[in-house]
């Protein structure tokens, strides 16, 4: 009697999910101004007049702070939406300072989440907790890999 090895059922190995790659393109417009194309939306960045720009748009650093502020606002707004609450009056005030030493960088950012006037004080802490975990804030705490290379 000849014995054969039992067939081993194999299940396909789970594959790593493909990274969801998001792309944008930056092109020079004039002087210190650059256009940013994001999914068909255009943004412009420039520098103030003092360092040589024409002050036609926010600076890249201002957009950086704005991205954090709008991310916080978005998360707070989604919290309100999930709970069937109105977002009228919701806002975020933001200020930042630049480091005085090198390398050039933002030294501090302060955000003040302004709750809608109709929001009960009992909901303030929960909304703040949700907003504090927005994607940009998380990214600043868990630094992404950044690669800068020159096209050949």
From TrEMBL:
Pfam families: OsmC (PF02566). This is OsmC family protein. It comes from Streptomyces ureilyticus.
């Amino acid at each position: 009697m000849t014995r054969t090895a039992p067939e081993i059922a194999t299940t396909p190995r789970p594959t790593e999910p493909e990274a969801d790659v998001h792309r944008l393109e930056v092109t020079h417009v004039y002087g210190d101004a650059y256009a940013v194309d994001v999914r068909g939306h255009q943004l412009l960045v420039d520098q103030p007049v003092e360092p040589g720009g024409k002050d036609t748009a926010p600076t890249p650093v201002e957009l950086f702070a704005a991205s954090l502020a709008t991310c916080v606002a978005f998360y707070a707004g989604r919290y309100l939406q999930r709970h069937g609450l109105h977002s009228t009056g919701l806002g975020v005030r933001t200020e930042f300072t630049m480091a005085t030493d090198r390398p050039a960088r933002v030294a501090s950012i302060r955000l003040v989440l302004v709750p809608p006037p109709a929001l009960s004080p009992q909901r303030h802490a929960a909304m703040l907790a949700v907003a504090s975990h927005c994607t940009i804030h998380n990214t600043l705490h868990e630094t992404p890999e950044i690669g800068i290379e020159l096209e050949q």
